[in-house]
What we know:
The protein is 45% helix and 10% strand. The chain has 11 helices and 4 strands.
Amino acid sequence: MALDFIRKEHYNTEDLIRIVALLRAPGGCPWDQAQTHASITENFIEETYEVIEAINRQSTAGLQEELGDVLLQVALHAQMEAEAGHFDFNDVADGICKKLIFRHPHVFGDVKAENTDDALASWDAAKLKEKGMKNVVFLRTHAEELESIFAPGEVSEIWITFPDPQMAKARKRLTGTRFLSLYRKFLKEAGLIHLKTDSPFLYQYTAELVKANHLPVNVNTDDLYGVGLDDKILGIKTFYERQWLSRGKTIKYIQFSLAGPIQLVEPEIDIEKDDYHSETQFMTRQLKVEN
């Protein structure tokens, strides 16, 4: 039985929403009807990286096509939620429009932004206000400059999440003696250092450094999500982490404090270098292999 649908020369977003609804409705496409959020997660990731590939190829036609594929993913997920009575595509558009207006007070309000740095600062301030967060600030600076920003004893905790392990340059490792000595200058007494990494090298290096300097350790695990820690913050999996977990990697985590004014020393042990590379590098390599 033919669907009640009129073919057109040109279509718009409203047409896309209706087509997706028809595909999932009775009499539509069996494949589309069978899909769930979870079943097409990889599709969303794949389409996103194909957009990046089109950008890297500087292909205007390719970019137009791949952006359409990403938009289809958005429409599919929104349609699933519309069927469940939660929200629809227009609710998604409404939400992002309101967010853009609220987070651009330098455009839609009376806040001044003379350059990109001012604009980013305005965005961050609006985001904090929107989330109701207090005593938080976003910094875009080199780690070496932190000492000039924070007063001695002003910071309670430092989170180092997925930094470059710098396997060839110990002085650039953010958990190395150089930077730990820097952090100590503005950390509170017994202030905490948190490291989350997917690099076996950086994890082992940091663990050995902590051991060599007899630093107090609260948590040390090479499988953060496999040990069942009861911690709301640590239980949050970022998009980046979910990608690595889906490929069989584990997230390593160490929490320790910089007690005492002792002179920190580097660990005297050879640590095997790993094949660490970022998620973006991983996907770029995968695309090259597939092509």
